[in-house]
Amino acid sequence: MPAFEEHHLLEISLAFQIYGEILHAEPCKIGHINETYIATYNQGGVPVRYIHQKINTTVFKDPDGVMNNVLRVTAHLRAKLQAAGAADITRRSLTVIPTRDGRPFHRTKTGECWRTFVFIEGLRTFEAVETAKQAFEAGRAFGEFQQLLVDLPGKRLVETIPHFHNTRRRFAALQKAAAEDRCNRAASAKAEIEFALTREKITGVILDALAKKKVPERITHNDTKFNNVMLDVKTGRACCVVDLDTVMPGCALYDFGDMVRTTTSPTLEDELDLSKVKMGMPMFQALARGYLEAAGSFLTKNERALIAFSGKLITFTIGLRFLTDYLNGDTYFRVHRSGHNLDRCRTQFKLVESIERQEEAMQKFVNGL
Length: 369
Ligand code: GN1
Ligand code: MG
Description:
Layout lengths: L5 H8 L7 E8 L6 E9 L2 E10 L7 H21 L5 H4 L3 E2 L8 E2 L5 E6 L4 E2 L7 H17 L18 H14 L9 H8 L7 H7 L6 E3 L8 E4 L5 E4 L6 E3 L1 H12 L17 H15 L5 H5 L1 H21 L12 H28 L2
Antiparallel strand pairs: 1-2, 2-3, 3-6, 4-6, 5-6, 7-9, 8-11, 9-10
Helix pairs in contact: 4-8, 4-9, 5-11, 8-9, 8-11, 9-12, 11-12
The protein binds 2-acetamido-2-deoxy-1-O-phosphono-alpha-D-glucopyranose and magnesium ion.
Magnesium ion binds next to loops.
């Protein structure tokens, strides 16, 4: 049984302003939340590809708000790139294809929400970093993304998932899940629960700095994992940042933290051999250089001072979320094997330990840039 029904996708494809007929579609396995397909169309005798994506509306409860943000952000990026005389603009930012009646997404009779993007040819993503150059490119791409959005006009973007990186709330959610132990799994995650509970004191550091306005609110990506930056196959340069559902008001440090989580260890997010999970200093240095090359122009002193800490905090926070989902019965992140969320949590916590050991040296390096 395929993971999707071709017929269903045919029906979806007809809803969008695409000039051609769909030939075939393949599911794309990237991401734990939305469902993504790469579809090939015959357009005037030439095969042209598009992305169709079903928005997970259990997670994104306000798809209108999400798409409104995405349209504003992509239009702004396009305008800035155009003004700078950049080449290849449709490869540098996502392009939303509207529905035949001019909407940013299509709602089916059963309530599914589908959207379509131009597929960008000649780019690819990686699940794990292979070279320091890639880490540098990821840092530069997300830094540039933040920098281009500094002057986004109009009202505040919608918070597509309120309190998304609120570590205090994520910590409380874990405490609740562990206490309720609905699926009888707490015993199998005793060490991980313990690991989490002993680190409560770090949960409020950035939240308090934000509340006291020591660190500013900015427009941020909020899901800066390495597989959300597309690299040019030929040059290896970062070309386009994708997965814009959580672009919203946030903290630049959370973006940097998630880059540390996903680019400094050579391992996958669900690596089973924990001895391989390590924060690699050369990778961190390349990442920080790339990020500061683009974001150095606007970051404040207080933000810079928390750069290394942010890597630890976000890795810890995502670990908390995997652990909570494991205890709650895997209702949020898509899983592909039993215990998958616990495996993911273990990898995150192992990385937290590695960062803890090197945090001072990491910050020292950043201070010297
Ligand atoms: C989810 O679906 P994906 O992989 O882009 C999650 C992120 C997590 C990430 C962990 C909306 O992102 O917050 O960091 O998994 N996205 C949402 O891999 O919760
Ligand atoms: Mg995502």
